[in-house]
Amino acid sequence: MALSRSIVILGSTGSIGESALKVVDHLNSSGQARVKVVALAARSSAKRLLAQARRYKPRTVALSDPQAAAWLKARLKGPAAPRVLSGPQALEAAAVAPGASLVLSAVVGAAGLLPTLKAIRAGRHIALANKETLVAAGELVRREADRAQVRLLPVDSEHNAIFQCLAGLPLADEVKRIILTASGGPFRQASLSQLKRVRAQEALKHPTWAMGPKITVDSATLMNKGLEVIEARWLFGIGFDRISVVVHPQSVIHSMVEAVDGSVLAQLGPADMRLPIQHAFTWPRRMAHGMQPLNLLALPALTFEAPDLKRFPCLALAYAAGRKGGTAPAVLNAANEAAVAAFLKGRLDFMGIPRLVARALRADPQASLVKPGLESILQADAWARRYVEGELDA
Fold it and tell me: Widest CA span of the chain, in angstroms?
């Protein structure tokens, strides 16, 4: 019997969302699964969402931007037309669209937090591609997921690799540490003086992955790996002292798990996000993917090196914020989002990103909170964005 899934895709017009729809096409056309797209949601990409709505015929589409939603609604008419949601809560409403059992959370940044929480509270399992949700509110989200008996299925290639490796280590006391691999980004061999002169168009040229601008810059600063460290802590319930990062430029080994007996389990695969997406969509089953398989005989030599925290201080900042807890991870994430946006607009130099993030962490007015609730986390997020903007204008 073919596997059946009914899904919501939050962030359907981004790179992860579009890869997810390719997975849907493959699973349906191959006859291995029946995947129904119940709802599609994005921020403002109305033209892309229109094309998706006409192809996949979801019952609900959503755009955060009211003007974009009005444009879309005018073009989706007729008795079979989907309902069009708009405004700040549109993604939250789409996340709990009737009939869905799985929600792919692929909205970029902290904007994914509230829709993901809404879906968890409604009992939807989560295919998580939005790491910022667990960075900003990991303890809260983990608690809500456990209470609702909802599974968090990782879609990030690194966390999906760890998830797969942990299947071979079913007992928690068998795991010594997890090892996240990082490509090192486009500036892996750049000197500190060269990094100070980096421009946005250079930072957007990732050597391995094709991604959106924000995550591509995060990969260049190694902040992306820092966010993944915090995400891993909450996904897998493991302390920061047992989460390591190793630079692996070839991006063939997506991550590893070291067992207490010294064995290291690694997951290898092509650098194609459709693989972890399909794994999350079809879990606990595995299905043929129809993509170019990994050719071991054609691989280059696999190399590994330690990350340089002097040239890439964002990784150290993330470890520090994760260990501190409270509102620090939310401030880290929001300050980084604001700083990256400023860098992409030419308002901030490349090394200014970690500089502003570090200042925001030192200035956090809620730093004494130990277990902040959702309201405090959202306040920390908003404060960090205002703080960065104020520093830019100073």
Answer: 63
Total number of domains in the chain: 1
**Is residue 85 included in any domain, yes or no?**
yes
Q: Considering the domain boundaries, does residue 82 fall inside one?
A: yes
pLDDT for 1 equals 63
Domain at 75, CATH number: 3.40.50.720
Q: How high is the pLDDT of residue 370? A: 87
Query: Which residue's structure tokens are 């029946």?
Result: 34
Residues of the chain with pLDDT under 50: none
In a domain, 225, yes or no: no
Kindly state whether residue 236 falls inside one of the protein's structural domains.
no
SS3 of the chain:
CCEEEEEEEECCCCHHHHHHHHHHHHHHHHCCEEEEEEEEEECCCHHHHHHHHHHHCCCEEEECCHHHHHHHHHHCCCCCCCEEEECCCHHHHHHCCCCCCEEEECCCHHHHHHHHHHHHHCCCEEEECCHHHHHHHHHHHHHHHHHHCCCEEECCHHHHHHHHHHCCCCCHHHEEEEEEEECCCCCCCCCHHHHCCCCHHHHCCCCCCCCCHHHHHHHHHCHHHHHHHHHHHHHHCCCHHHEEEEECCCCCEEEEEEECCCCEEEEECCCCCHHHHHHHHHCCCCCCCCCCCCCHHHCCCCCCECCCCCCCHHHHHHHHHHHHCCCHHHHHHHHHHHHHHHHHCCCCCCCHHHHHHHHHHHHCCCCCCCCCCHHHHHHHHHHHHHHHHHHHHC
Instruction: Decide if 331 contacts 379 (C-beta within 8 A).
Output: no
Domain that holds residue 106: 3-154
